[in-house]
Protein backbone atom coordinates (compact mmCIF):
# COMPACT_ATOMS: atom_id res chain seq x y z
CA UNK A 1 0.00 0.00 0.00
CA UNK A 2 1.04 3.60 -0.65
CA UNK A 3 2.85 4.82 2.49
CA UNK A 4 2.80 8.50 3.37
CA UNK A 5 4.40 10.92 5.84
CA UNK A 6 2.02 12.53 8.32
CA UNK A 7 3.32 15.74 9.94
CA UNK A 8 1.54 16.93 13.08
CA UNK A 9 2.42 20.35 14.48
CA UNK A 10 0.90 22.64 17.06
CA UNK A 11 1.27 24.33 20.43
CA UNK A 12 2.31 22.51 23.63
CA UNK A 13 -0.28 20.27 25.30
CA UNK A 14 -2.74 20.35 22.44
CA UNK A 15 -2.99 16.59 22.21
CA UNK A 16 -0.62 16.25 19.26
CA UNK A 17 1.19 13.21 20.62
CA UNK A 18 -2.05 11.48 21.54
CA UNK A 19 -3.33 11.94 18.02
CA UNK A 20 -0.01 10.96 16.44
CA UNK A 21 0.19 7.75 18.52
CA UNK A 22 -3.39 6.77 17.70
CA UNK A 23 -2.88 7.40 13.99
CA UNK A 24 0.38 5.45 13.95
CA UNK A 25 -1.19 2.50 15.78
CA UNK A 26 -4.22 2.41 13.51
CA UNK A 27 -2.22 2.71 10.30
CA UNK A 28 0.64 0.52 11.54
CA UNK A 29 3.05 3.40 11.05
CA UNK A 30 6.09 4.46 13.08
CA UNK A 31 5.39 7.23 15.62
CA UNK A 32 8.09 9.78 16.41
CA UNK A 33 7.72 12.33 19.21
CA UNK A 34 10.29 14.98 18.23
CA UNK A 35 9.61 16.95 21.43
CA UNK A 36 11.12 14.00 23.33
CA UNK A 37 14.34 14.41 21.33
CA UNK A 38 14.62 18.11 22.27
CA UNK A 39 13.80 17.18 25.86
CA UNK A 40 16.54 14.52 25.97
CA UNK A 41 19.08 17.00 24.59
CA UNK A 42 17.96 19.53 27.22
CA UNK A 43 18.42 16.93 29.96
CA UNK A 44 21.99 16.29 28.79
CA UNK A 45 22.70 20.05 28.74
CA UNK A 46 21.32 20.50 32.27
CA UNK A 47 23.21 17.53 33.69
CA UNK A 48 26.47 18.71 32.14
CA UNK A 49 26.02 22.44 32.75
CA UNK A 50 26.41 23.29 29.09
CA UNK A 51 26.74 27.01 28.49
CA UNK A 52 24.17 27.69 25.76
CA UNK A 53 25.96 30.89 24.77
CA UNK A 54 29.06 28.93 23.82
CA UNK A 55 28.75 27.37 20.38
CA UNK A 56 31.91 25.31 20.82
CA UNK A 57 30.58 23.78 24.03
CA UNK A 58 27.22 23.06 22.40
CA UNK A 59 28.85 21.27 19.46
CA UNK A 60 31.11 19.24 21.77
CA UNK A 61 28.08 18.26 23.86
CA UNK A 62 26.07 17.20 20.80
CA UNK A 63 28.91 14.89 19.76
CA UNK A 64 28.40 13.03 23.06
CA UNK A 65 24.66 12.60 22.60
CA UNK A 66 23.14 9.51 21.09
CA UNK A 67 19.35 9.52 20.83
CA UNK A 68 17.23 6.46 20.14
CA UNK A 69 13.65 5.26 20.47
CA UNK A 70 13.02 1.75 21.76
CA UNK A 71 9.62 0.12 21.61
CA UNK A 72 7.96 -0.42 24.99
CA UNK A 73 5.52 -3.31 24.53
CA UNK A 74 3.65 -2.54 27.80
CA UNK A 75 2.79 0.98 26.67
CA UNK A 76 2.46 0.22 22.97
CA UNK A 77 4.84 2.97 21.91
CA UNK A 78 8.53 3.88 22.08
CA UNK A 79 10.46 5.32 25.00
CA UNK A 80 13.16 7.95 24.53
CA UNK A 81 16.73 6.82 25.25
CA UNK A 82 19.67 9.16 25.85
CA UNK A 83 22.98 7.33 25.50
CA UNK A 84 21.19 4.04 26.18
CA UNK A 85 19.46 5.30 29.34
CA UNK A 86 15.66 5.29 29.36
CA UNK A 87 14.82 8.96 30.05
CA UNK A 88 11.13 8.83 29.09
CA UNK A 89 9.93 9.85 32.57
CA UNK A 90 12.58 12.32 33.64
CA UNK A 91 12.31 14.38 30.44
CA UNK A 92 8.66 15.18 31.34
CA UNK A 93 9.65 16.69 34.72
CA UNK A 94 9.71 20.40 35.46
CA UNK A 95 13.45 21.18 35.10
CA UNK A 96 13.50 19.91 31.52
CA UNK A 97 10.07 21.35 30.73
CA UNK A 98 11.17 24.78 31.90
CA UNK A 99 14.34 24.77 29.79
CA UNK A 100 13.45 22.85 26.66
CA UNK A 101 12.03 25.76 24.68
CA UNK A 102 15.16 27.85 25.07
CA UNK A 103 17.49 24.93 24.23
CA UNK A 104 15.29 24.31 21.16
CA UNK A 105 16.06 27.79 19.82
CA UNK A 106 19.74 26.88 19.30
CA UNK A 107 20.78 26.48 15.67
CA UNK A 108 23.21 23.64 16.42
CA UNK A 109 20.57 21.72 18.36
CA UNK A 110 17.97 22.08 15.62
CA UNK A 111 20.34 20.95 12.87
CA UNK A 112 21.32 17.93 14.98
CA UNK A 113 17.70 16.90 15.63
CA UNK A 114 16.25 17.68 12.19
CA UNK A 115 18.87 15.59 10.38
CA UNK A 116 17.99 12.54 12.48
CA UNK A 117 14.26 13.13 12.01
CA UNK A 118 14.66 13.29 8.23
CA UNK A 119 16.58 9.99 8.28
CA UNK A 120 13.73 8.36 10.20
CA UNK A 121 11.23 9.40 7.51
CA UNK A 122 13.15 8.01 4.55
CA UNK A 123 10.97 4.88 4.32
CA UNK A 124 7.75 6.90 4.85
CA UNK A 125 4.99 5.17 6.86
CA UNK A 126 5.65 7.62 9.69
CA UNK A 127 3.67 9.96 11.91
CA UNK A 128 5.88 12.66 13.41
CA UNK A 129 4.75 15.30 15.85
CA UNK A 130 6.46 18.55 16.81
CA UNK A 131 6.58 22.22 15.92
CA UNK A 132 8.37 22.39 12.57
CA UNK A 133 7.60 19.04 10.96
CA UNK A 134 5.38 20.36 8.17
CA UNK A 135 7.49 23.46 7.56
CA UNK A 136 11.11 22.29 7.95
CA UNK A 137 11.56 18.56 8.58
CA UNK A 138 9.16 17.27 5.91
CA UNK A 139 7.90 20.15 3.77
CA UNK A 140 6.94 17.45 1.24
CA UNK A 141 4.76 15.47 3.73
CA UNK A 142 1.58 14.20 2.07
CA UNK A 143 -0.58 15.10 5.08
CA UNK A 144 0.05 18.01 7.45
CA UNK A 145 -2.17 18.63 10.44
CA UNK A 146 -1.91 21.72 12.63
CA UNK A 147 -3.53 20.97 16.00
CA UNK A 148 -4.92 23.74 18.18
CA UNK A 149 -7.05 23.95 21.32
CA UNK A 150 -8.32 26.65 23.63
CA UNK A 151 -5.71 27.63 26.29
CA UNK A 152 -7.99 26.76 29.23
CA UNK A 153 -8.69 23.34 27.76
CA UNK A 154 -4.95 22.80 27.36
CA UNK A 155 -4.29 23.86 30.98
CA UNK A 156 -6.99 21.50 32.24
CA UNK A 157 -5.58 18.53 30.30
CA UNK A 158 -2.01 19.20 31.41
CA UNK A 159 -3.12 19.69 35.03
CA UNK A 160 -4.80 16.28 35.09
CA UNK A 161 -1.55 14.68 33.88
CA UNK A 162 0.86 16.57 36.14
CA UNK A 163 -1.12 16.55 39.40
CA UNK A 164 -0.69 12.77 39.59
CA UNK A 165 3.04 13.11 40.19
CA UNK A 166 3.12 16.67 41.54
CA UNK A 167 0.11 17.30 43.84
CA UNK A 168 1.18 20.89 44.63
CA UNK A 169 1.21 22.08 41.02
CA UNK A 170 -1.25 24.88 40.24
CA UNK A 171 -3.23 25.60 37.11
CA UNK A 172 -1.85 29.13 37.07
CA UNK A 173 1.76 27.84 36.98
CA UNK A 174 0.88 25.49 34.14
CA UNK A 175 -0.80 28.29 32.20
CA UNK A 176 2.26 30.53 32.60
CA UNK A 177 4.59 27.76 31.40
CA UNK A 178 2.39 26.97 28.38
CA UNK A 179 2.08 30.63 27.37
CA UNK A 180 5.80 31.16 27.78
CA UNK A 181 6.60 28.10 25.65
CA UNK A 182 4.06 29.16 23.00
CA UNK A 183 5.77 32.52 22.88
CA UNK A 184 9.33 31.17 22.60
CA UNK A 185 8.35 28.41 20.13
CA UNK A 186 6.44 30.83 17.86
CA UNK A 187 8.96 33.65 17.88
CA UNK A 188 12.34 31.95 17.66
CA UNK A 189 14.50 32.84 14.65
CA UNK A 190 15.00 29.30 13.30
CA UNK A 191 12.00 27.15 12.32
CA UNK A 192 9.42 28.85 14.53
CA UNK A 193 6.14 27.08 15.20
CA UNK A 194 3.97 28.10 12.27
CA UNK A 195 1.17 26.47 10.34
CA UNK A 196 2.47 25.29 6.96
CA UNK A 197 0.45 26.84 4.12
CA UNK A 198 -0.85 23.44 3.10
CA UNK A 199 -1.60 22.16 6.64
CA UNK A 200 -5.16 21.43 7.74
CA UNK A 201 -6.18 22.99 11.09
CA UNK A 202 -7.71 20.65 13.65
CA UNK A 203 -9.17 22.45 16.67
CA UNK A 204 -9.84 19.73 19.22
CA UNK A 205 -11.12 21.93 22.10
CA UNK A 206 -14.54 20.30 21.91
CA UNK A 207 -13.58 16.92 20.49
CA UNK A 208 -13.06 13.62 22.26
CA UNK A 209 -9.94 11.62 21.40
CA UNK A 210 -12.07 9.24 19.36
CA UNK A 211 -13.70 12.06 17.38
CA UNK A 212 -10.33 13.65 16.73
CA UNK A 213 -8.89 10.34 15.51
CA UNK A 214 -11.85 9.69 13.20
CA UNK A 215 -11.40 13.07 11.50
CA UNK A 216 -7.64 12.70 11.04
CA UNK A 217 -7.98 9.10 9.88
CA UNK A 218 -10.34 10.18 7.10
CA UNK A 219 -7.80 12.74 5.93
CA UNK A 220 -5.02 10.12 6.04
CA UNK A 221 -7.05 7.55 4.10
CA UNK A 222 -7.82 10.10 1.40
CA UNK A 223 -4.10 10.79 1.00
CA UNK A 224 -3.10 7.12 1.13
CA UNK A 225 -5.69 6.34 -1.55
CA UNK A 226 -4.47 9.06 -3.90
O1 LIG B 1 6.09 18.50 22.25
P1 LIG B 1 6.79 18.86 23.56
O2 LIG B 1 5.99 19.76 24.44
O3 LIG B 1 7.32 17.66 24.26
O4 LIG B 1 8.06 19.72 23.07
C1 LIG B 1 8.96 20.27 24.00
C2 LIG B 1 9.66 21.46 23.40
O5 LIG B 1 10.52 21.06 22.35
C3 LIG B 1 8.78 22.55 22.83
O6 LIG B 1 8.49 23.53 23.79
C4 LIG B 1 9.58 23.12 21.70
C5 LIG B 1 10.55 22.04 21.33
N1 LIG B 1 10.25 21.40 20.05
C6 LIG B 1 10.73 22.01 18.93
O7 LIG B 1 11.30 23.09 19.00
N2 LIG B 1 10.57 21.42 17.71
C7 LIG B 1 9.93 20.25 17.61
N3 LIG B 1 9.79 19.68 16.41
C8 LIG B 1 9.42 19.62 18.76
C9 LIG B 1 9.58 20.22 19.97
Task: Please name the defining characteristics of this protein.
226 residues; alpha/beta; Rossmann fold; five-stranded parallel beta sheet; three-stranded antiparallel beta sheet; 49% helix; globular; binds 2'-deoxycytidine-5'-monophosphate
How many whole angstroms does the radius of gyration measure?
Answer: 17 Å
* Portion of residues within helices: 40-55%
CATH fold type: Rossmann fold
Order of helices and strands: EHEHHEEEHHEHEHHEH
Q: Which CATH class applies here?
A: Alpha Beta
The distinct ligands, each listed once, are: 2'-deoxycytidine-5'-monophosphate
CATH H level, superfamily name: P-loop containing nucleotide triphosphate hydrolases
Q: Biggest sheet: strands, sense, closure? A: 5 strands, parallel
Low-confidence runs (pLDDT<50, min 5 residues)? none
Domains (count):
1
Query: Quick one: how many beta strands?
Result: 8
Q: What is the chains' assembly state? A: single chain
Strand content: 15-25%
Structural class estimated from helices and strands:
alpha/beta
How would you describe what is shown here?
With 226 residues, this protein is an alpha/beta fold. The chain has a single domain, classed as 3-Layer(aba) Sandwich (Rossmann fold). The chain has 9 helices and 8 strands. The strands form 2 sheets. It has a 5-stranded parallel β-sheet. Bound molecules: 2'-deoxycytidine-5'-monophosphate. The site of 2'-deoxycytidine-5'-monophosphate has 14 residues, from α2, α4 and α8.
